[in-house]
Design a protein that fits this description.
Order of helices and strands: EHHHEHHEHHEHHEEHHHEEEEEHEHEEEH
Helix content: 40-55%
Largest sheet: 8 strands, parallel, barrel
Shape: globular
Strand content: 15-25%
Structural class: alpha/beta
Number of strands: 15
Number of helices: 15
């Protein structure tokens, strides 16, 4: 990234997720997942097709090779491997085996995520989802099966992607199925169960004696008070515990601090709900896993600025890219505000690169058991314009975003923070969970009518970065 930093073992890569790119929703014996049942349709291609990675994975992996990337972070679809959540589908295994083998043949490290926002709908029908211990048991068995199946080929595993995004949007924001709103007690209960199942999986992996590495990926939006007032500072603390700290305590410390639990209780009490039960036997499992965890992945996109708020919850999600339409006020937490002096994307995500450094430093300072960090997602949603096959897609604002954030990563490395890899989100354009197809993140533009891929200006820029190990200037 910069001269003087040893980047010999640094992993440059790209990330995707199964549902967002695969398509082939009913092919190869795949069962329905929770996201299939939701059946969101946006734009000119629905989620049954997405970026058709199911049929284009060979092309996509070779595009990574052309860029000189050394790692591919993707996700297994549980319902493709086990359609009902229990019984194995051989065709699904063969699909992921082809991806893994092709990566290895091209000197690309395959890094699968076991859970990226989708589980077999059959399990939800059977057990009720993340609130059920039986569902947790099924996930552990699925993970153990995958470890055994790919033991000789996969050296890095991720248990869960962004559990904070999942629980918050499932039970507070209402943008993920089952689409509840204002259910803070259910949100924290789901968070608690996700931390626990992650820990059980880490412990099972280590007990089996596998020689690879295992970690978890958190979406961490750095939270700041809007002013120095006592009320704004407390609102920032409350927001941070809801979206960051409860997860970090559970997975990286193996124990919830008294201060963390007091803030959790304050949020739940303010909404007239019942405090979750913290079981001592569960914390033993968490602590054992935290001591064995090999790495933590950080997904960072934006920061949040909070002010004191005492009204009812009001959340208006900007899923259209109409700038200035996002509203987020939570009862018992606070209100997000958008500082006028800071830029934002069309989806109202505040662009604040310093938040990347501050979050990495927080993880390093506050959680001493962590000894390896990867930036597992960082990127910018943008309305890219395709102007013809003979013209390079100019996404200079994305390059500027990536450059500024990579400079903060370099600053963290210089400060001794153990960041060992960076994965851009995303390899190619794909379905965006709550924004459809207009919000593009890819290094490669996808024409969803033809599924043809086109390199963007950012792809060439990232290729130069991977080759030189130094952050290029913006031409």
């Amino acid at each position: 990234m910069k001269k003087g930093i040893n980047m010999n073992k640094f992993l440059w890569g790209a990330s995707t997720s199964g549902f967002q790119v695969e398509g082939g929703y009913n092919l190869g014996g795949k069962g329905l997942s929770t996201t299939d049942v939701r059946h969101v349709k946006e734009g000119i291609a629905d989620t049954k097709v997405a970026s058709d990675h199911y049929h284009h994975f060979k092309e996509d992996i070779l595009l990574m090779k052309e860029l000189g990337l050394k790692a591919y972070r993707f996700s297994f679809c549980w319902a493709r491997i086990m359609p009902d959540g229990h019984h194995v589908n051989q065709e699904g295994l063969e699909f992921y085996d082809q991806i893994i083998q092709l990566c290895l043949e091209n000197d690309i490290e395959p890094i699968p995520t076991l859970y990226h926002f989708e589980m077999p709908q059959a399990l939800v029908d059977e057990f009720g989802g993340w609130k059920s211990r039986k569902c947790i048991d099924a996930f552990v068995e699925y993970a153990k099966f995958c470890f055994k199946e790919y033991a000789g080929e996969v050296r890095y595993w991720i248990t869960i992607n962004e559990p904070t995004s999942m629980a918050g949007q499932q039970y507070v924001g209402g943008t993920f199925p089952p689409a509840y709103k204002d259910q803070f007690d259910k949100c924290f209960k789901a968070e608690y169960n996700q931390n626990l199942v992650h820990a059980r999986i880490v412990n099972a992996y280590k007990e089996a004696g596998y020689t690879g590495q295992i970690g978890i990926v958190h979406a961490l939006q750095t939270v700041y008070p809007a002013t120095d007032s006592k009320g704004d500072k407390h609102a920032a603390e409350l927001k941070d515990v809801l979206e960051n700290k409860f997860y970090l305590d559970g997975t990286l410390a193996g124990k919830y601090s008294k201060h963390t639990l007091a803030l959790v209780k304050e949020i739940i009490d303010a909404n007239g709900q019942q405090m979750i039960d913290i079981k001592p036997e569960d914390e033993k499992v968490l602590l054992k896993a935290a001591k064995q965890l090999d790495f933590v992945g950080v997904n960072y996109y934006f920061s949040k600025f909070m002010k004191e708020y005492h009204g009812d919850t009001e959340i208006i999600h900007n899923g259209t890219g109409e700038k200035g339409t996002d509203v987020n006020r939570m009862k018992g937490v606070g209100e997000e505000i958008h500082p006028k002096d800071l830029p934002a994307t069309d989806w109202d995500w505040i662009i604040y690169p310093q938040g990347m450094y501050d979050q990495l430093k927080r993880v390093y300072d506050d959680y001493p058991l962590v000894h390896s960090i990867y930036i597992t997602e960082n990127g910018m949603g943008y309305k890219d314009k395709f102007e013809g096959e003979d013209k390079i897609i100019d996404d200079t604002p994305r390059i500027d975003y990536l450059k500024q954030h990579m400079e903060e990563v370099a600053k963290a490395i210089e400060a001794g923070i153990p960041v060992h890899g960076y994965f851009v989100w995303s390899l190619q354009d794909m379905f965006s969970w709550t924004n459809g197809y207009s919000k593009r993140y890819g290094l490669f533009y996808v024409d969803f009518k033809t599924q043809k891929r086109y390199a963007k200006k950012s792809a060439y820029w990232y290729k130069k970065l991977a080759e030189t190990q130094e952050i290029p200037s913006i031409d």
